[in-house]
Amino acid sequence: MKELNPLLHSQLRLAIMSILMSVDEADFVYLKEKTESTAGNLSVQLDKLSSAGYIRVIKGMSGKRPRTTCSVTPDGRAAFEEYVNSLRSYLNL
């Protein structure tokens, strides 16, 4: 059996990737609300996913407020699909 990707096996990182797989992009506030995580924890996990090349993080401004948006990269999409396929092999689906 294929080993599950440890970077994606984290509950919060898996939740982030699952959300981002279904949208073009999501902002930090949306991800924070959907994952019910703290801002600090979410920020750390986004950095890990970004460092791995799985997501793209864009920091900008929306009016006078800072806005951070995230999207899945092609490498991230491939890693997520491989993770899901590995999980399916464990479950015999």
UniProtKB/TrEMBL annotation:
This is Transcriptional regulator. SUPFAM superfamilies: Winged helix' DNA-binding domain (SSF46785). Coiled coil: none annotated. InterPro entries: WH-like_DNA-bd_sf, WH_DNA-bd_dom, WH_DNA-bd_sf. Gene3D superfamilies: Winged helix-like DNA-binding domain superfamily/Winged helix DNA-binding domain (1.10.10.10). Residues 12-91 form the Winged helix DNA-binding domain. It comes from Paramuribaculum intestinale.
